[in-house]
Design brief:
Elements (H helix, E strand, L loop, with lengths): L1 E7 L2 E6 L9 E11 L3 H8 L11 E9 L11 E4 L2 E2 L5 H4 L10 E2 L11 E5 L3 E3 L6 H4 L2 H12 L8 E5 L3 H12 L4 E6 L5 H6 L3 E4 L7 E6 L4 H10 E9 L11 H9 L3 E4 L12 H10 L9 E6 L3 H10 L6 E5 L15
Parallel strand pairs: 10-11, 10-13, 11-12, 13-14, 14-15, 16-17
Antiparallel strand pairs: 1-2, 3-4, 3-8, 3-17, 4-5, 5-9, 6-7
Length: 348
């Protein structure tokens, strides 16, 4: 099979390798679509994975191609999404079914081989079957959509409240849509420039730039992970408001003394979040995403700014790494998956 093997930091090779073994309780998924996460950029080019070689990619969907012993053979040929975190099922958090906070988790695409590959080995427990009306490209966004939903839930009951999202990546725009669905009075996405304004219109959310923020918000979601964005978040959240931090830090986070004082004097509620709640066959963030997509309550097609065939994945990585043009979700399609949207597009 063909796969992108990260041999070392900044050494990604597209090559022929053996298909993974299908273990007891596991399946092989034939990948049909795989999204590039912003975290894949430092993982591939700067920081590396947990060992080498590793196949990156944790946002993907596909078809069950092979099943191991003990797995229901009726899964063969089924279209599936994949929860990439593999919990230990033994730690305190797992016993309480908070699998996203597992102390000893494995992870597809960083700790073990992932979705930038024609086939991926996945535990049966991590599969979520797709309704026929959800495309493979939409299903490859289940993971970031669930992460965005989980983040907004950390704000508690946001009905009637003013909500700001700092960050114009796919998760930021998804979180804004969830906030609208959850009944927020006002939802504003805050970006550095006007480049993403058209995208905001396409998904029916308000947009403003950093230099034009003129009110305080009950709930602020920080989805960037930089010193400046966290500083802004603390400054624009109301007294006794809630600050949700989820942006992957680009380095050490250092707060100015006056900024730290605002946390104290505003008596802010500070919540961290990084993943999503999932339990096979039970109601979770993932099942809620499926339901929302099924009822067209969340717009996802407009979040996909670029689609590349599998052979061109590196072009997508370089586009994001070098910010060659504005983008939201960069998607790749695999195993001859061609859709009517498979032309490479861009946000104007």
């Amino acid at each position: 099979m063909k796969a992108y093997s990260l041999e070392n930091i900044n050494n990604l090779k597209y090559k022929e390798i053996d298909k993974p073994n299908c273990l007891d309780g596991w399946v092989l998924v034939k990948v049909k679509a795989a999204g590039i996460c912003s975290s894949d950029i430092p993982r591939i080019f700067k920081k590396g994975t947990y060992h080498f070689p590793t196949i990156p990619g944790h946002e993907f969907s596909g078809i069950v191609d092979e099943v191991g012993a003990g797995v229901d053979r009726n899964l063969l040929g089924k279209s599936v999404g994949v929860f990439p975190l593999i919990p230990c099922k033994e730690c305190e958090q797992c016993k309480n079914k908070h699998y996203e906070m597992c102390s000893n988790y494995d992870y597809i695409g960083s700790r073990r081989d992932g979705g930038f590959s024609e086939f991926v080995a996945v535990p049966e427990w991590n599969l979520i079957e797709l309704p026929s009306d959800i495309s493979f490209t939409d299903a490859a966004m289940l993971e970031p959509l669930a992460v965005a939903l989980h983040a907004m839930k950390q704000g508690g009951d946001i009905s009637g409240k003013k909500v700001a999202i700092i960050g114009t990546g796919m998760i930021g725009f998804a979180a804004a849509q969830w906030a609208n669905k959850m009944g927020a009075q006002m939802v504003t996405v805050i970006g550095r420039s006007h480049k993403k304004e058209e995208l905001a219109k396409n998904v029916n959310v308000d947009y403003t730039t950093l230099d034009n923020v003129n009110c305080e918000y009950d709930v602020v979601l920080e989805a960037v992970g930089s010193n400046s964005s966290i500083d802004l978040a603390i400054n624009i959240v109301k007294a006794a408001g809630t600050l949700i931090v989820m942006g992957n830090p680009e380095g050490n986070i250092v707060l100015k003394q006056n900024t730290y004082w605002r946390i104290l004097r505003k008596q802010l509620h500070l919540v961290g979040t990084w993943n999503s709640a999932y339990e096979n066959g039970k109601k979770s963030d993932w099942s809620e995403v499926i339901e929302a997509l099924h009822h067209n309550e969340i717009k996802v097609d407009n979040l996909i700014s670029h689609i590349f065939q599998q052979e061109k994945l590196v072009e997508g990585l370089e586009l994001m790494r070098e910010h060659k043009e504005p983008y939201c979700k960069v998607m790749t399609v695999w195993n001859e998956e061609h859709s009517c949207n498979s032309e490479i597009t861009s946000i104007e």
